[in-house]
């Protein structure tokens, strides 16, 4: 209380209000440290990096704590998006929302409020959150002005206390000074952790897609009838001049089951490279659970090894213009021989907000794991209104939040392609195989890996090789 009263007196706040702090916050003392990694008067993104320190004598649940960064918008109609680039507490446990001040000033009419889910844990006395590497930007990706922002300090490039931020504990200000007449009020709804679905295999009535890939060839009429497109011709991604080959998308026996085989063949030249891709025809997949059983291939069927191949399972929307704010993509990309600067086996889980192809500018975040994944693996992505979670063989390997959540419906895709010709210079023909046992999507349901397994087992027990009840948007 003594610290809170001292802050109140320095800030010129209404001290009478602080004498009524909630009992849970009565002995709590929190401070905010700030630095910026974008110090210019104008910038593509505002980058307020923060730490919150517990200087009190009691443990504070972070789900009770919020921090406000105050700024002057670039116009009444301009909207902004929040992103967490990295956080010691995990970006999935950090929230960011924008608000409008009741009493605008020359340096502030809006604020970014940073909060925490229960997953962020608590701060014991003397502890701090560690780095919160945050940023926000205009939704239209235009350059913004930050030199007139109340909470901005371009000279503060190392962490230090910064009283032009406010820290709230259970809705009451315990540190910092808000712009005149704009003291924060208690939040109406606290951050929540992502919802989960009930037990079993989820809601049996939820719209779902399931495909066991029991086709004869890629030209089987049922492939198209079931909503799939097999890519042909040329075009990205990968090596310019390579060809997408429908004939190399085959369906082969694996014991008593059939699996889809995506073969990549190359002789080390663009003209001698054949790649494969299968994609849904309809863009109708957004929040929910995506899962597939995929077999990755570290070595070719013959010839020298070492090509920079990319074996994938992903979902995405089209990029309608550079830095399209409605673009999104969630990828599993396995590079058995490295690539993109890596020299060993690596799996990436990448969530995309948007990008500019020329000049290249990618707005994404990723998880990664080194080591071989040769063989069969269960891959799963769940998406709700707060997070994207990636699983491999039932284990969470990456979690991403805003701004990477999809804005519009997406396609589901598998492709097997060559990143470049730098991995192996031999002109001996060699082939790599990526196989897919099944794919499943359950709309608006966040299923556990065990629930996905139960759902797939139910389809197979019923003799269902294909079903699609997901409505078009």
TrEMBL record:
Domain called GH16: residue spans: 139-447
GO MF, any single term: hydrolase activity, hydrolyzing O-glycosyl compounds
GO biological process: carbohydrate metabolic process
Segments forming domain CBM3: 26-180
Keyword annotations of the record: Hydrolase, Signal
Signal peptide: 1-25
Stretches the record annotates as Disordered: 175-237
UniProt keyword Signal, yes or no: yes
Matching SMART domains: CBM_3
UniProt feature, compositional bias: Pro residues: 184-197
Protein's UniProt keywords contain Hydrolase: yes
Name under which the protein is recorded: Glycosyl hydrolases family 16
């Amino acid at each position: 209380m003594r610290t809170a009263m001292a802050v109140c007196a320095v800030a010129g706040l209404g001290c009478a209000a602080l004498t009524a702090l909630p009992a849970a916050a009565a002995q709590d003392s929190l401070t905010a440290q700030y630095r910026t990694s974008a110090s210019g008067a104008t910038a593509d993104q505002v980058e307020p990096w923060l730490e919150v320190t517990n200087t009190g004598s009691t443990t504070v649940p972070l789900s009770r704590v919020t921090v406000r960064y105050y700024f002057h918008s670039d116009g009444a109609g301009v909207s902004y998006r929040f992103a967490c680039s990295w956080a010691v507490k995990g970006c999935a446990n950090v929230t960011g929302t924008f608000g409008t001040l009741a009493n605008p000033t020359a340096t502030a009419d809006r604020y970014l409020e940073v909060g925490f889910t229960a997953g962020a844990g608590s701060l014991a006395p003397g502890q701090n959150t560690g780095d919160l590497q945050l940023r926000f930007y205009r939704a239209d990706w235009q350059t913004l002005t930050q030199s007139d922002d109340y909470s901005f300090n371009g000279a503060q490039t190392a962490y230090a206390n910064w009283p032009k931020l406010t820290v709230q504990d259970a809705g009451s200000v315990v540190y910092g000074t808000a712009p005149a007449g704009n003291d924060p009020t208690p939040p109406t709804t606290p951050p929540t952790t992502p919802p989960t679905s009930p037990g079993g295999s989820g809601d049996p009535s939820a719209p779902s897609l399931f495909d066991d890939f029991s086709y004869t060839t890629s030209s089987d009429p049922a492939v198209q009838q079931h909503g799939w497109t097999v890519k042909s011709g040329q075009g990205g991604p990968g090596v310019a001049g390579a060809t997408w080959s429908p004939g190399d998308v085959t369906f082969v026996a694996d014991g008593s089951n059939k699996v889809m085989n995506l073969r990549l063949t190359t002789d080390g030249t663009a003209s001698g490279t054949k790649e494969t891709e299968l994609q849904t025809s309809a863009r109708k997949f957004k929040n929910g659970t995506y899962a597939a059983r995929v077999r990755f291939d570290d070595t070719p069927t013959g010839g020298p090894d070492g090509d920079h191949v990319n074996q994938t399972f992903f979902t995405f929307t089209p990029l309608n213009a550079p830095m399209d704010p409605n673009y999104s993509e969630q990828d599993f990309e396995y590079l058995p021989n490295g690539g993109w600067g890596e020299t060993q086996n690596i799996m990436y889980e990448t969530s995309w907000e948007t990008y500019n192809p020329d000049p290249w500018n990618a707005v994404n975040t990723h998880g990664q794991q080194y080591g071989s994944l040769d063989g069969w693996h269960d891959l799963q992505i769940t998406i709700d209104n707060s997070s994207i979670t990636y699983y491999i063989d039932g284990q969470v390997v990456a979690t991403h939040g805003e701004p990477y959540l999809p804005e519009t419906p997406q396609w589901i895709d598998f492709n097997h392609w060559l990143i470049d010709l730098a991995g192996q210079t031999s002109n001996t023909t060699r082939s790599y195989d990526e196989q897919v046992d099944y794919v499943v999507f359950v709309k608006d349901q966040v299923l556990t890996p065990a629930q996905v397994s139960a759902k797939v087992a139910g389809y197979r027990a019923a003799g269902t090789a294909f079903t699609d009840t997901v409505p078009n948007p």
